[in-house]
Fold this sequence. Notes:
Strand content: 15-25%
Shape: flat
Helix content: 40-55%
Bound molecules: adenosine-5'-diphosphate
Strand order of the largest sheet: 2-4-5-7-6
Amino acid sequence: PPGARLPLPDSHDELRALAEEFNALLERQEQASERLRRFTGDAAHELRSPVASIRVQAEVAVTNPDPELSQETLGDILTEAERLSSLLDGLLSLARSDAGEVPPAEPVELVSEVRAAVGRLPAGAPETRVSNAVAQAWAWAQHGEVELVLDNLLRNACRYARGEIVVSVLATRSSVRVVVDDDGPGIAPEHREKVFDRFYRVSDDRARITGGTGLGLAMVAETVRRRGGRVQVGESPDGGARFQVTWRAAPVS
Ligand code: ADP
């Protein structure tokens, strides 16, 4: 049963050490299965809402003879289906990461990756300025991961920025860093630790309007941390959000 532990013998010998070791292992196992249980429950809960909405809308479309209304309803169904699809993509990507499927690290040049990611922003996105402190910065990471990180941070910045986004690339001998600053409402200190948790959103309403999944920053944090890098959130000079991602510098060959 959960919570069961080996009784510790009175002596301070190897047997006692072994029992302590064993109990610590049980503890870690229990924590891991508790995390998994919570994740599965949260995932089911998150998937339920777009599915329920698609179902209701489809019922409306089927029973309503007005073609204009069904057109609108179909549009809503499409939006929910897209949301469902990005949720599933996120879940699959986190599941692969949990299973330890990590592609080998390679040198990735951040200045060109940042420019490419800015180029992928949709038309009508807030003005995005790249302010390089360096001409090149080589991260010890993986190309697809860097794209995921930059796309997520820029997409979030676009959602919340009022006027401008500034992306900077910095480098030291041992590490390289991307900083994304926006001039939106920012993230209050009490939420900063938690925004990297799976499904966490600062305000449910805000997330509903923006159509987010609550998985983006969790994926960012996990891909960066498993390479020995760091993610941080703070305040930008304009009072908006500042996200910083630091990778280990690629070894020079
Ligand atoms: P979502 O898909 O909901 O955006 P994320 O994991 O990307 O999920 O972000 C988690 C939450 O962090 C968001 O719901 C939002 O409340 C907050 N957040 C993320 N980026 C920003 C930002 N640039 N400015 C303000 N709030 C942000």
